[in-house]
What we know:
Blueprint: E1 6-10, E2 15-20, H1 26-42, H2 46-61, E3 69-75, E4 78-86, E5 95-102, H3 111-126, E6 130-136, H4 140-148, E7 152-161, E8 164-174
Parallel strand pairs: 5-6
Antiparallel strand pairs: 1-2, 2-3, 3-4, 4-5, 6-8, 7-8
Amino acid sequence: MLPGMMAMDDSQSGNRMRIAGYFPGAVGRITELHATYYYEHWGLDVSFEAQVGRELSEFVGAFQKGRDGLWVATCEGELSGSIAIDGRKAHNEGARLRWYIVAPKFQRRGLGLTLLREAIQFCGKAGYKKIYLWTFRGLDTARRLYEQEGFRISEEHEVPQWGVILTEQKFELILP
Length: 176
């Protein structure tokens, strides 16, 4: 196993999921997972995929170990989930949690909570005082996980974005 890699048993399939950092192809696979999931379940258009791909590419290109974090979960070579912490503005605005997703076939197995806790733990070790994320109303499973870990809604407003009208939500977690 590579340094920084974690393994967790997927008791439903008997397979082991691996959680590691960047690997070649990760940007494309994370973008594809977001694009297909949010198109199929929420009707988001190509502008969403383009934004995810562009911003994720910029993040990976500017990545600094210790400031930023990226965790990518795979099971038998298939992308099963991801999460990132963008620390570029952490000392002014807070660390930004981004690209958090678990592929539908891997949901309800504890992977989402494992990824979220890894990101929060990273922020604590980095000395960040606040974590924030932007999402939208309706992603109830993710919201439950955020709230379980102490995140609270700090902003909410309706926006026309990605070909639909969404109620955008900002969640924040203040760290000790």
